[in-house]
């Protein structure tokens, strides 16, 4: 859990520097975004079943939805569009697969 928090925090923070439409105010904001993302992921395990029917595409959309929800809870974490949330979900999935 701590490893995922650190990996996601660093990924959110670094992705904000690429200028693709993700804005993170500070590394502390990135940590809180990763924490909220993790909590939503834990509690959202019951609603993942309809998304899992569609395979990996459904899971990517589920992760993108969670990332989009983080923007509602955290004012310093801004994503400009839902397609960008999908891209970030794919990147997070790849980064987590590499570092786990």
Present the secondary structure layout.
Elements: H1 2-16, E1 22-24, H2 27-43, H3 48-52, H4 56-73, E2 77-79, H5 82-99
Antiparallel strand pairs: 1-2
Helix pairs in contact: 1-2, 1-5, 2-4, 4-5
Whole-number tally of structural domains: 1
CA-CA gap between termini: 11 Å
Structural class of the secondary elements? Answer: mainly alpha
- The shape is globular
The tally of helices reads: 5
- The string of secondary-structure elements, in order, is HEHHHEH
Average pLDDT for all residues: 86
Question: Main β-sheet, in a few words?
Answer: 2 strands, antiparallel
Strand content bin: 5-15%
Radius of gyration: 13 Å
Query: What's the total number of strands?
Result: 2
Structural description of this entry:
- With 100 residues, this protein is mostly helical.
- The protein has one domain.
- 73% of the residues lie in helices and 6% in strands.
- The chain is built from five helices and two strands.
- The protein has helices spanning 2-16, 27-43, 48-52, 56-73, 82-99, and strands spanning 22-24, 77-79.
- It has a two-stranded antiparallel ribbon with strand order 1-2.
């Amino acid at each position: 859990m701590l490893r995922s928090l650190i990996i996601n925090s660093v990924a959110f923070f670094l992705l904000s520097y690429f200028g693709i439409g993700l804005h993170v105010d500070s590394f502390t904001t990135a940590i809180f975004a990763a924490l909220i993302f993790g909590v939503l992921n834990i509690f959202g395990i019951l609603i993942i079943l309809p998304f899992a029917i569609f395979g990996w595409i459904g899971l990517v959309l589920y992760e993108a939805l969670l990332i989009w929800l983080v923007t509602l809870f955290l004012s310093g974490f801004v994503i400009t569009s839902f397609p960008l949330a999908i891209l970030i979900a794919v990147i997070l999935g790849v980064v987590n697969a590499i570092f786990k």
